């Protein structure tokens, strides 16, 4: 894989049985720097979510009074719109507790005359509650739908204490799901992309093949619309400020997960005076470039895979895997063998390929609730030659529905956003040298995370983002949460972001999941976060849970 997490409804907490949708993030794949690999990972990050109860009661419309905060010059027509909360579109699985709204933003903030994009937001209000404020949230990705996340999961992710006082607001970032979505390829083409084995990018022919696949993908996206030109995180953060103003919030209260931490930190850098209370859980380090993020994630996923092998042995004296690194190496040897000989499944047209197996395995590292079903799936595959369970897991993580279509566009959006956010740094000689060093240092997963920048050279839209520390000078204290065993956003990233911020406070959480806060988290975590929003009490110093 190579990089920046991909989330989507990564925050869900559910049981892990086949057919269920446990919490997870998006997985990697062999040489995850390739397009199929990257999209495979993005898929898993956004994997599971709670379903709605099917309620469709008619909502009365609500038109909030815009905030009194200053309006940026030249953008008056956007900040002067009327926001109307009403019934959600049928494509959104909203309950009677959710309302939706749409508003316009400029494609290009530097030149608004180039046209507009339509942005969709959702607001969840617990039945019987008259909220005293709003908490905005983003589940991660990039490419995760905050609208789906809030509409389907808000009542499970946030504690009842929070829901008794606040409305929860989610905005789909430009290019994502319900907000002028990027559309690139057909479901059949996505099937092929996610299942096709990646070529060896250390060979000239393999590298050329993967570069061409990436170029072809970008070309198809651009042929459908020019939306992929405008989906950078800075522009999305400006959209969030438009929504904050239209919704009547003088200050932005915000809880972001995974990529949502970079989104939130970017907002704080752009609009420090508009920040109210901010919590960033599962932090992505904005100072790292594309390949540096990839290496940090590779180390995190490798530790998690070793931990999985240990857990298997601790829970079962007859575990089919060796302990620690030996078990991790067994798993990856099995995966590599699928490159030449995919495994049978219940669908003769869809064998378990190397890429799909990586999706299931690495995606399971996002949350230990996946471990029991992953153990069963690997045992069936490695000992019995049946890949059906792993295929079903990969489909869930890829948001592939039973009819062969895909829910949303998290994979296309994931790659398009990162393509704009991360500058390409280095040259081919440097990348090849780094790749070989990575393989030598990390033989278990090194091949999954190399040559990311090399493979992005032919994307049709050039990067516009810059990597560097975010200080958010002038913003109030911001809580950054890092989990000790987080595979996708390792603790070192949270430590770095908390240090970068002018007023950063670090909460370190012991555990192995990706991100820490949810309604079922330990009391130390939920109380620390809830007290910030409910009591305006930020920890005075770094804290450990």
UniProtKB/TrEMBL annotation:
Membrane-spanning segments: none
UniProt KW Cytoplasm keyword: no
Region span, Disordered: 1-25
Domain AB hydrolase-1 as annotated: residue spans: 139-303
Keyword Signal tagged: yes
GO function terms (MF aspect): hydrolase activity
The organism's place on the tree of life at top rank: Bacteria
Boundaries of every Peptidase S33 tripeptidyl aminopeptidase-like C-terminal domain copy: 448-545
Keywords: Hydrolase, Signal
Annotated family: Belongs to the peptidase S33 family.
Name of this chain's protein: Uncharacterized protein
Organism: Boudabousia tangfeifanii
């Amino acid at each position: 894989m190579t990089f920046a997490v991909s989330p989507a409804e990564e925050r869900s907490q559910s049981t892990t049985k086949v057919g269920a949708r446990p919490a997870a993030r998006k997985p990697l794949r062999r040489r995850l720097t390739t397009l199929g690999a990257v999209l495979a990972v993005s898929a898993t990050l956004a994997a599971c979510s709670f379903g709605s109860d099917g309620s469709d009661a008619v909502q009365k419309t609500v038109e909030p009074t815009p905030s009194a905060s200053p309006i940026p010059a030249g953008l008056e027509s956007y900040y002067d719109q009327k926001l109307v909360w009403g019934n959600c579109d049928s494509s959104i699985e909203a309950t009677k507790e959710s309302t939706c709204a749409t508003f316009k933003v400029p494609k290009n903030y530097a030149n608004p005359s180039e046209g507009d994009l339509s942005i969709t937001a959702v607001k969840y209000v617990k039945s019987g509650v008259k909220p005293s404020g709003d908490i905005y949230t983003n589940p991660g990705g990039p490419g995760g739908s905050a609208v789906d996340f809030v509409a389907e999961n808000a009542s499970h992710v946030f504690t009842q204490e929070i829901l008794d006082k606040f409305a929860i607001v989610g905005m789909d970032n430009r290019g994502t799901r319900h907000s002028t979505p990027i559309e690139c390829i057909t479901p059949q083409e996505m099937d092929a992309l996610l299942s096709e084995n990646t070529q060896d990018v250390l060979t000239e022919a393999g590298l050329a093949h993967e570069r061409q696949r990436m170029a072809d993908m970008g070309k198809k996206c651009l042929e459908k619309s020019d939306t992929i030109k405008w989906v950078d995180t800075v522009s999305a953060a400006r959209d969030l400020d438009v929504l904050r103003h239209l919704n009547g919030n003088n200050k932005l209260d915000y809880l972001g997960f995974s990529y949502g931490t970079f989104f939130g930190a970017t907002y704080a850098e752009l609009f420090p005076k508009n920040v109210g209370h901010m919590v960033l859980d599962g932090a992505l380090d904005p100072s790292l470039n594309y390949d540096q993020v990839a290496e940090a994630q590779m180390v995190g996923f490798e530790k998690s895979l070793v931990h999985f092998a240990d857990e298997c042995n601790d829970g079962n004296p007859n575990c089919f895997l060796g302990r620690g690194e030996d078990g991790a190496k067994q798993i990856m040897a099995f995966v590599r063998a699928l490159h030449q000989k995919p495994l049978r499944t219940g669908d003769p047209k869809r064998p378990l390929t190397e890429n799909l197996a990586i999706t299931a395995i690495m995606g399971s590292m996002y949350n230990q609730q996946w471990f029991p079903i992953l153990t069963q799936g690997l045992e069936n595959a490695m000992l019995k030659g049946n890949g059906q369970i792993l295929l079903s897991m990969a489909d869930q993580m890829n948001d592939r529905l039973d009819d062969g279509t895909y829910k949303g566009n998290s994979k296309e959006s994931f790659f398009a956003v990162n393509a704009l956010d991360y500058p390409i740094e280095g040259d081919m000689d440097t990348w090849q040298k780094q790749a070989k060093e990575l393989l030598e240092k990390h033989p278990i997963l090194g091949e999954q995370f190399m040559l990311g920048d090399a493979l992005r050279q032919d994307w049709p839209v050039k990067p516009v983002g810059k990597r560097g520390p975010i200080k958010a000078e002038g913003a109030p204290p911001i809580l950054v949460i890092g989990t000790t065993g987080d595979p996708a956003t390792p603790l070192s990233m949270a430590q770095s972001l908390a240090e970068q911020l002018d007023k950063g406070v670090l909460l370190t959480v012991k555990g192995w999941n990706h991100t820490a806060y949810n309604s079922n988290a330990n009391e130390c975590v939920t109380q620390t976060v809830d007290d910030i929003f409910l009591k305006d009490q930020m920890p005075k110093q770094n804290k450990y849970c």
